[in-house]
Amino acid sequence: MLITHDTRCALDTVVDLVNTAPEDDTTPDGLADVTALDEFVRSHQISDVGTLSEFDLSAVRKIRGRFAGIFAAPDARSAAVIINELVASAGTTPRLTDHDGYDWHVHYFAPGASVADHLAADCGMALAFFVVAGEQERLRRCEAPDCRRAFVDLSRNRSRRYCDSRTCGNRLHVAAYRARRKEAAG
Length: 186
Ligand SMILES: [Zn+2]
Ligand SMILES: [Zn+2]
Fold this sequence. Notes:
The chain is mainly alpha-helical.
């Protein structure tokens, strides 16, 4: 499937957004306050966002939960239901653009959209195309026992099982290696 620059950005953004959620009661929320949201918007180069408020913060946290549901969806149909709701509630205005020297592509967020609607529209559509392409299963959660971070598996054979943010795959390899050594030595 063709992944354009903007799709790639939207995917990175939605994965990072989902992963700002606290993993349990003991970990902090990555979007704890408006300042944190402002930082998130800046670092992900989300365009056309005005001054942020508490309202934006709670709206973004709400859609974060919806996006998390897409990564946890067991099949394309249940992912499609959530994506449809997200995109419909955002109210989209598809329009062609060739901004910043990129090839022609479509933006979905409506002019003047809030940051939550912007994310719901553009990230929602980026995920929608995975469902269209029959690639919904690439939207994954890490299989390491103490990690449930979201990631998009862009490997050729869809074989990725672990996120790379905490070297989960590596840790498991090391644990398996040690277990084998112990067995061999014992
Ligand atoms: Zn663009
Ligand atoms: Zn992980």
